[in-house]
Amino acid sequence: MIKTLHVDLCVIGAGAAGLSVAAGAVQLGWDVALIEKDKMGGDCLNTGCVPSKSLLAAAKAAHTIRTAHKYGITAHEPDIDIRALKQHVDGVIKTIAPHDSEERFEGLGVKVFREQAVFTAKDTIAAGAQAITAKYFVIAAGSRPRIPPIPGLDPARILTNETIFALTEKPAHLIIIGAGPIGMEMAQAHRRLGSKVTVLDAGPLLPRDDPDAAAALRDILREEGVKFHENAAIDRIEHGKNVAVIAGNTRVEGSHLLIAAGRQAATDGLGLEKAGVQCNEKGIVTGRRLRTTNPRIYAAGDIAGGPQFTHVAGYHAGIIIRNMIFKIPAKTDYSALPRVTYTDPELAQAGLTEKEAREKYGDSIRISKARFRENDRAQAERQTEGFIKVITRGNRIIGATILGPYAGELIGMWSLAIARKMKIAAIAGMIAPYPTYGEIGKRAAGAHFSAALFSGRTRFLTGLLRRLPF
What we know:
- It is a single chain.
- By secondary structure, this protein is an alpha/beta fold.
- It has 15 helices and 23 strands.
- Helix 1 runs parallel beside helix 9 (310-324), helix 3 (49-66) packs across helix 4 (82-96) and helix 3 (49-66) packs parallel to helix 6 (181-192).
């Protein structure tokens, strides 16, 4: 008979949140157990961020070859080797995997169990045949693709982010249901890699993002050949030799169907009712300190019912470590949270969008914009599509939207500015290296002051000053 294992902390889930909490706690001297039923590294490493960005990089390389004429270089249609492409994606995962591996965490001192975790009491978990009790628990079991209840849809005959990267053939015509970040990224990637692509969504594309930026991005992808059907209520799916999606009078037939209709928290099978942990339709119910309805149990990452991003999972880990180990009452604050859709150009957001700001503050906000076509580095590299939009209230920065090259890299400064409640003058007054894409931020900040700077009142003042001796 196996004895019950007693630890300070038991973590469920070896994704970004769980691994960060486990690594932090064990290195601070805690006795830690980690339970993972599937692959170490979770969704981000194996079926999410890493493979998708690897595929997007390959697609961008293909697009560069196809459009090289804009640099004075002979362009041609690239030869896409799907098997070699898959090896590239798999190779990136394998390179990163050791950092998240069972061996690394056991080397740190974590007791790793590759089993399904099930609560049997408020302070006890069964991991296979092993019983584990702990002073604290962190549930970081992640999420999985949400499969909408569409008549005729056969879950065994569709693709999700968990299966699309395993393809060893190029889809002749990829149909995507869902025009959120995953749908948009996969649409552009597969179109650039030579597939026909059609995207359908029951609403508008990228509904959480700035409408101006979303519309501009849609136009860019349309120019590349992606077809969109927005606000399309899907009636049914027909699976045959090919797959067909019927939405009203629209019928789209393709070779493959990708469901990218969001994600749902993976709360089932954990025995949460025995742990006294309450859930709702978004996931586990927590307070801002990420404690659940059982004060000994925290939740982190996608399962915690908040924003579902890998960087949020890491942020959650820090909040939990401060509360659980250092007894600091840290709370989550998403007001400056950055998010990025990794299309080309990228679409990044921090703080409030213009629409959200107007709904909250009315006409007391100001909008400052600059376009990448006005940026010298963008002109030099022929990447001039897109813009930056900065939202201020009382000269304080409350939001920023960037559609353009490297938007995901550029948004960090604005996230920090919002978090630190900085005024727009701080950005306008900074020295930006030339020529860089980052100058566009300074240009937008300067635009905030242009009307006042070059007004009649200012000209009158400078006229008076001009008369002064020396």
